[in-house]
Design brief:
Elements (H helix, E strand, L loop, with lengths): L1 H14 L4 E4 L4 E4 L5 E4 L58 H18 L4 H16 L4 H16 L7 H16 L7 H10 L6 H11 L18 H10 L1 H9 L4 H18 L2 H4 L4 H20 L7 H8 L3 H19 L1
Antiparallel strand pairs: 1-2, 2-3
């Protein structure tokens, strides 16, 4: 912390500005008064839902491609007419062009795009869909680039693909699996997001495609299925942001920060003591939700106080069926908690 303050002071002297802050989203030191970028600082990629910066940086976060290409979109060398996505044109002095010139440049820009994606229209649509899905799932650009890289590797192998949208959905699933707890997104959420955008993508189809691809591309399928531990930070984050939970914390005079810390610690402790054989084939996300409920019951029992979470509140906060939480709680966790006491 002292090093950072000294860096800020040094930068402030150099540019004659006092309020220099580190923008973690961009990895840049900027002046809060004028917005001038003073210096750059590497910041590890994190999942947006989790504000804690994790020092576990994936080896797959850097890729090398040919000059002029970008992983996540199809384009080539050369500049654009005005900005890439602009549709209104002005001259060098900022004066808008006439209606006739506007129509001319719009037409030229359209043909420029067609020339860039010629014979690669299918890849362009698939990667464009990926760019639409990423912000909806609150995922990092590193995960987007990794998914695009996997997609390019499979396509370049000349593997016969009948549904490129389904393939890009599978590539995104493989990418989030590699980033583990930095991207705790389920296969159901990925498929649902693609369906919201109007594409026919189902969990079953993604699994079938993965079974087909696995023998030939084992490098990308080396990561095992999700573990419950990878969902802890996301689920507890959702719980602590839920209004009903905050209301109950206030009514029972419980400090939210202390409760969150204890809930995280107890959840990790319970999962650590339940081996994978006992968990069986249970859904890791639902099992983590039920474990959070068990941790809350354990905390209330230890402090001899009211429990903060109910199965209904937890169901609403995590978008998980109430009967599923109850089934996991009564089927395994209830007896386990009694033994731990």
């Amino acid at each position: 912390m002292n090093d950072r303050k000294s860096q800020i002071q040094i930068l402030g002297v150099e540019c004659k500005h006092n309020d220099v802050i580190l923008d973690f989203s961009r990895g840049e030191y900027i002046c809060s008064n004028c917005g001038l970028v003073m210096s750059q600082q590497y910041v590890p990629p994190t999942y947006k839902m989790n504000p804690i910066i994790n020092d576990k940086i994936s080896n797959t976060s850097r890729h090398y491609i040919s000059l002029g290409d970008r992983l996540h979109i199809i384009d080539g060398l050369g500049s654009f007419i005005d900005y890439e996505h602009s549709s209104f044109f002005s001259d060098s002095q900022g004066i808008p062009l006439s209606a006739k010139s506007q129509a001319l440049f719009k037409r030229l820009k359209y043909y420029d795009l067609r020339a860039r994606i010629a014979k690669r229209e299918t890849d362009y649509r698939a990667l464009k869909t990926l760019n639409q899905v990423i912000p909806k799932l609150n995922l990092n650009s590193k995960i987007r680039d990794r998914a695009a890289y996997i997609y390019h590797k499979i396509i370049k192998d000349k593997e016969k693909i009948t549904n490129h949208i389904l393939l890009i959905a599978l590539c995104l699933l493989l990418a989030v699996r590699e980033y583990k707890d930095l991207a705790p997104v389920t296969i159901q959420e990925i498929a649902k997001t693609f369906r919201i955008l109007g594409h026919r993508v189902s969990e079953r189809a993604m699994i079938q495609l993965s079974l087909k691809m696995r023998p030939k591309f084992r490098t990308f399928f080396k990561n095992k299925i999700r573990r419950s531990e990878e969902y802890i930070s996301r689920i507890i984050s959702n719980v602590m942001k839920y209004p009903k939970v905050n209301l109950r914390l206030k009514n029972y005079n419980v400090n939210p920060t202390t409760y969150e810390r204890e809930l995280t610690r107890e959840t990790r402790m319970i999962l650590k003591n339940i081996d994978f054989k006992k968990r069986g084939g249970r859904n890791p996300y639902i099992f983590t939700v039920a474990t959070v409920y068990a941790a809350d019951q354990k905390i209330s029992s230890k402090l001899n106080s009211h429990s903060i979470l109910t199965q209904k509140i937890l169901s609403e906060a995590t978008n998980c069926a109430e009967y599923s939480i109850r089934d996991h709680w009564r089927g395994l966790l209830y007896d386990f908690i009694k033994k731990m006491k």
